[in-house]
Amino acid sequence: KKTLKDAEEKKGFFTLWKKRDNLYLQINKDQLGKPFLYIVSFSRGIGSNGVLGGLPLDDRMLQFERVGDRILLMDVNTRFLTPKDTPIDRARDLSIGNSVVQSFKIESEQDSTKAVLIDVGGFFVSDVTDLSEQMRFAFGGVSARFDRERSALTQAKSFPDNNEIEALLTYTPNDRSRLNLETVPDNRYIPISVHYSFTRLPEKPMAARWADNRVGYFLDARKDFGREDKESFWVRNIHRWRLEKKDPSAAVSEPVKPIVYYLDRTIPEKFKPWVKEGVEKWQKAFEAAGFRNAIVAMDAPAESTGFDPEDTRYSTIRWITSHEPSFGAIGPSRVDPRTGEILDADILFEASMFQNYSNAYRRYSGPEQLAQSLLPQDVFAQLPTNVTPEMLCMAGNALADGGALQHLALLMDQELPPGAPVPDSYLKPAVIWAVMHEVGHTLGLRHNFKASMAVTPEQLRDPKFGAEVGVSASVMDYNALNIATRDERQGQYSMVTVGPYDIWAIEYGYKQTTPETEKTELAKTLSRALEPQHAYATDEDAGFMPIVEGIDPEVNRSDLSSDPLGFYEKRFTVIRELWDRVQAKELPAGTKY
């Protein structure tokens, strides 16, 4: 009682007590030794150098354990599995342990319930994320030190299944002579807000689904020492939402709980119907997998209703701004590492991604900034060290570059007056495709850079085929904008429907089976992997320049059709036609090219 006198109670997953600069966390007896999900991200970055609000920083499974009068926060080792209470389980325990993230003094203990209080304020206002080291990569080798005196706890919220805490952390660079940050008022003090989440894991773990190289899902790989009679110790589970039929006997049924995305108030009103359409385009794929209305988009309720985007019960789509656009859009998820179950997803779009289809800073910046935006090594160097290349999505660049070309063509055809934005009739399909792509990531799907090979050049010139089937076999490709030459019929400009590969991939990940039928049912789906529209190749196959080059000439980013060289030859023709028209065009006096 003395410890909590005048403290503000915040009931939730873990009950929090806020008292001046102290933040006490209550651990009930049944919460000791029970794992939970710990996710850290930038809540506010600096708008440049890859330090951007929404990007992930850390993701692991933790648990609290009591040792005497201290509470240890343990990083649970999820990389290795063994059958419980077996000799190999005891051998694993002898060989492999958990890491101690932090040790806390027990501030008080309740006699009747044995619940304990620890002060976690210092844990959140610290460099526990190792940001000072990560920023060396973002700032070109310039290291920074954490400044405790200029840092503070700024927010603490509790919800039934999660706790959300934010802290303003200040970092001081050790060599300002090599650092130029236009977005920071004072380079001596770099302000970064970090968001921490403690999320309850499901009491009943979802049945895991194994991964297969023929279909592209994000996955968790773990070594199971109990598989000594198998060909390999490795177990690979895909990331997917828990979807269960209301009527298991029906071929197509409503789900018990649909996947719902809430459209945040940061989205421009004009875009909201397009974003909703982009989300719900995936219903076509889920119907083929046996679910009706499995995925829906809704406007976010008013704040007065208690809705909060940070509540893990709500998946959201939000708009953000940044000085130098970096990723266009990103779809991070919270995933149960035990099973691959996706628990929550929050998609972020950079507002400039849709500004005239192009990142405006590219056109108005100097050659150095232009070069940096085009060189992959700069992108990798600026990312947080835990963001691996396969997590990187640069689909916005493909959209922006093709859109800039389309914009110029419209200006030259005098369909647009100088300075006018791209018309909604052209912008809407681009928004729909971008939303479908990022939602696909939050459904568990990886990029498929071979999908464009499934569509012929003739089919690209057929607007009906493009609208019904797609200009590619998948929205998960970086599909270039389909722009015809002057003597060709113009087909569908971009993807406005999920493709044949997407439908097949969702069937593999989400079709409902029983333990007895799963192996047979999934084998039946995978037997169609050799159909041309189901071909799959991802980031590693296309290559991560300059880390490694791709080796398959049919796996490319930002191309179209089963004839990639022919597509690029045609794109050169489009550019030459535009250049000839620019040279021949007489502009009114005082008009700038």
Summarize the structure.
The protein is α+β, with helices and mostly antiparallel strands and 593 residues long.
Explained architecture:
An eleven-stranded antiparallel beta sheet has the order 1-2-3-9-8-6-5-4-12-11-10. Strands 15, 16, 17, 18, 19 and 20 form a six-stranded mixed beta sheet that branches. The protein has 593 residues and is of the alpha+beta class. The protein is 25% helix and 24% strand. The protein is built from 16 helices and 22 strands. Helix 4 crosses helix 10 and helix 9 (395-412) packs parallel to helix 16 (564-584). It has helices spanning 87-95, 121-124, 131-138, 272-280, 283-288, 360-364, 367-374, 376-382, 395-412, 424-442, 457-460, 463-468, 500-510, 518-526, 539-542, 564-584; strands spanning 8-10, 15-19, 22-27, 36-44, 56-67, 70-75, 80-81, 99-109, 116-119, 144-159, 162-173, 190-199, 219-224, 234-238, 259-263, 295-299, 315-320, 329-330, 333-335, 342-350, 543-544, 548-549. Strand 8 (99-109) and strand 9 form a beta hairpin.
Helix content: 10-25%
> What integer value in Å does the Rg equal?
26 Å
Q: What does the main sheet amount to?
A: 11 strands, antiparallel
Mean pLDDT: 87
| Number of beta strands | 22
Strand order of the largest sheet: 1-2-3-9-8-6-5-4-12-11-10
Count up the helices. 16
- Show unreliable segments: 358-381
What characteristic shape results from the CA principal axes?
Answer: globular
Q: Name the beta content range.
A: 15-25%
Please give the alpha-carbon distance between the first and last residues.
73 Å
Structural class: alpha+beta
